[in-house]
Design brief:
Protein name: ATP-binding cassette domain-containing protein
Bound molecules: adenosine-5'-diphosphate, magnesium ion
CATH architecture: 3-Layer(aba) Sandwich
Organism: Microvirga terrae
Strand order of the largest sheet: 4-5-6-1-7-8
CATH topology: Rossmann fold
Keywords: ATP-binding, Nucleotide-binding, Translocase
Family: Belongs to the ABC transporter superfamily.
Radius of gyration: 16 Å
Structural class: alpha/beta
Distance between the termini: 13 Å
Order of helices and strands: EHEEHEHHHEHEHEE
InterPro entries: AAA+_ATPase, ABC_transporter-like_ATP-bd, ABC_transpr_LolD-like, P-loop_NTPase
Number of domains: 1
CATH class: Alpha Beta
Helix content: 25-40%
Length: about 200
């Protein structure tokens, strides 16, 4: 688990979007394992991201026209005509785990904290090997923030790559390294003592 910190406007969101292949880079190389993301075209990057990345956007990017459950199940509907029942069950389990009520309700009535947790459930639905999260606990109360920090720690320990932009000390404390951004540049890479 890697935490990305730095003042507002320092390029944290841009870095996450570049890592995910949402924006292309003008210099340098982005590689996950054998896959050089920065050499793929946009269609290939979209396909790679869909298969490999769970994204939690700073502004959540929920679909207002869809209900809560449909937002969470959305990643499964891109590749499958009919969503398998085990994925539907997983969507419900994730919503329960992150304590989002009224799963058949509209997302428009949800608080920011609830929206953040719907976004988290959606990001984890397909059990992606890479989780990219942009300030994932920013709208959460301490209890829910801790729950998500523990979940990210568990995912990282199970072998997932977790990269999160965060101002949240409790979340950053779980990271094995902390990257500091300033003015669009990475200025510091600090190995971080892992909480045991
Ligand atoms: N390395 C970079 N190259 C070009 N533009 C950048 C770079 N880093 C940040 N920016 C620009 O700076 C602005 C703020 O970046 P952003 O990623 O939103 O910062 P943060 O998430 O840290 O608040 C955006 O307009 C972004 O396009
Ligand atoms: Mg940002």
């Amino acid at each position: 688990m890697v935490a990305v910190v730095g003042p507002s406007g320092s390029g944290k969101t841009t870095l996450i979007h570049a890592l995910a292949g949402i924006v292309s880079v003008s210099a340098g190389e982005i590689r996950f394992g054998e896959t050089v993301i920065s050499r793929l075209n946009e269609t290939q990057r979209d396909a790679w991201r869909h298969a490999a990345c769970g994204m939690i956007f700073q502004d959540f990017r929920l679909i207002e026209e869809l209900d809560i459950f449909s937002n969470v199940i959305l990643p499964a509907t891109f590749s499958k005509v009919r969503v398998p029942s085990d994925l539907k069950r997983r969507a419900l389990e994730l919503l329960e785990k992150f304590q989002v009520p009224h799963r058949s309700g509209s997302v428009s009535g949800l608080s920011r904290g609830q929206r953040q947790r719907v976004a988290l459930a959606r990001a984890l639905l397909m059990d992606p090997p890479i989780i990219l999260a942009d300030e994932p606990t920013a709208s959460l109360d301490p209890e829910n923030g801790d729950r998500i920090a523990h979940e990210f720690d568990r995912l990282a320990r199970s072998g997932k790559v977790v990269i999160c932009v965060t101002h949240d000390e409790r979340l950053a404390a779980y990271a094995s390294s902390v990257l500091t951004m300033h003015d669009g540049r990475l200025i510091d890479v600090n190995p971080h003592r892992k909480v045991s």
